[in-house]
Design goal:
The protein has a domain of 39 residues. It is rod-shaped and about 65 Å long. Helix 2 packs across helix 3. Helix content is 76%, strand content 0%. The termini are far apart.
C-alpha cells in the first residue's frame, strides 16, 4: 500500500500536537488541584466538620463530597 502524500497538512498536524500537549498539561493540573482539594477537605474533616457541613457550604451533595475525597 502506497503512503499518502500528507504535504499541505503540516499545519493541521502541528495544531493537533499542540492541542494534545495542552490537554495533557491540563489533565496534570486537574490531578494536582484535585489532590489539593482533597487535602483541604480532609483538613476540615479532621477539625470536626462533617461531609454534610462541607457539602452544604459548597452547594453540592454529600455524595459529591465522598467522590471528591475518593479521587
Amino acid at each position: 500500500m502506497a503512503d499518502k502524500d500528507l504535504s499541505g497538512h503540516e499545519g493541521t498536524f502541528e495544531r493537533i500536537k499542540e492541542v494534545r500537549a495542552q490537554a495533557l498539561h491540563h489533565a496534570r493540573l486537574a490531578q494536582e488541584l484535585a489532590a489539593e482539594r482533597r487535602e483541604l477537605m480532609q483538613g476540615l474533616l479532621d477539625q470536626g466538620l462533617s461531609r454534610a457541613d462541607i457539602a452544604r457550604e459548597l452547594g453540592v451533595t454529600r455524595q459529591a463530597i465522598q467522590k471528591m475525597l475518593a479521587c
